[in-house]
Amino acid sequence: MSFTIYDRLKRRIAYTAYLALLPLAPRLGEARRALMQENIKRPSRADILNYLLEVCRRISGTNETAYLEIGVRVPTANFSSINAFRKFGVDPGIEAPSQAVDFRMTSDEFFRKLDCNEVLSPETRFDVVFIDGLHLAEQVDRDIANALRFTKDHGFVVLHDCNPPTEWFAREQYHFFREHSLDCWNGSTWKAFLKWRSMSSISSCCIDSDFGVGILSKSFSLGAPNTSPNPFFEYQVLSNNRTAMLNLISFDELQRIVEAALTR
Ligand SMILES: C[S@@+](CC[C@H](N)C(=O)[O-])C[C@H]1O[C@@H](n2cnc3c(N)ncnc32)[C@H](O)[C@@H]1O
User: Fold this and answer.
1) For position 33, what pLDDT does the model report?
2) Is 187 close to ligand 1, i.e. is its CB under 6 Å away?
3) What average pLDDT does range 37-42 have in this prediction?
4) How far is the CA of 134 from the centre of ligand 1 (A)?
């Protein structure tokens, strides 16, 4: 059996790729284990969002709640489970082009059009905005700033993927070896959340479920702002101080805080 130069070249490339991937393998194994652990945590993001919408209904005394989801992908994964009077989804259709969405555009484009009265109305105020679009810190930071402008005073801005379980989940690059992330990706959302966690004008916490569901509020006191330094947003520093930096709490704890505030 003879090998052509082409066969030899292919084998050499495959072997080089194999050697290059070996050091990554333990991180991938660690990521798969973390994925399984996170997937069994409850409640889901939908349960948390529905609880916050219910809180808004109780505060406003009306059922006419408005919900905005930035990044919908497949509606049945979350959007369809949300109980709100009016629901809107924004998604440019990058990951699931065939899915229907109210506003097929990026979040930047949506907020620009909202400002200019080209979609909905600039007076629109949402009870809950769920940010789950492009998971890169700079974009999420912009989404937070825009979402807060269009959220009612008693409303909430909620972010998915604020608590990446391993460094592999927290990488910026979504694609891996021409494959998609196989669910092991939270991106750098945590950096934007941490930035807003340090601000005294906004109160925040992160529910320890579903890869960290971050919650920002203009009126509820959800816990002290972050004061632990991490000026260069190093993952290891976050990993060693998750509870304090993210104000990582359980869903039960969130309910206790909110219910106590509502009865005051
Ligand atoms: C993680 S998925 C959303 C998952 C969904 N929210 C859920 O809970 O199941 C991220 C979505 O964000 C969309 N996306 C990507 N870039 C975006 C951008 N700049 N603005 C809004 N959405 C974006 C992608 O097309 C993708 O459908």
Assistant:
1) 86
2) no
3) 95
4) 6
Say how far residue 160 (Cα) sits from the centre of its chain: 2
Amino acid at position 145, single letter: A
Q: Categorize the per-residue pLDDT at 264 as very low, low, confident or very high, splitting at 50, 70 and 90.
A: confident
pLDDT reading at 69 higher than 90: yes
Q: pLDDT tens across 233-242, in order?
A: 999 999 999 9
Query: Which strand (E) or helix (H) includes residue 69?
Result: strand 66-70
CA distance 72 to 99: 9
Which one-letter amino acid corresponds to residue 104?
R
Q: Are residues 86 and 50 in the same domain?
A: yes
Are residues 212 and 164 in contact, defined by beta-carbon separation less than 8 angstroms?
A: yes
Which pLDDT tens digit goes with each residue over 42-63?
999 999 999 999 999 999 999 9
Residue span of the structural domain in which 27 resides: 1-40
User: 204: which strand partners?
Assistant: 216
Residue carrying structure tokens 């349960």: 47
| pLDDT for the residue 178 | 46
**Residues 32, 116 within the same domain:** no
- Is any atom of ligand 1 closer than 6 Å to the C-beta of 91? yes
Q: Cα angle at 170 between 166 and 175, to 5 degrees?
A: 115
Q: Is the CB of 136 under 6 A from ligand 1?
A: no
Q: Is residue 90 in contact with ligand 1, taking CB distance under 6 Å?
A: yes
Q: What is the C-alpha to C-alpha distance for residues 237 and 207, in angstroms, rounded to an integer?
A: 19
Are 26 and 67 contained in the same domain?
no
Q: Identify the residue with better confidence: 94 or 225.
A: 225
> Same structural domain for residues 8 and 56?
no
Residues 93 and 131 in one domain: yes
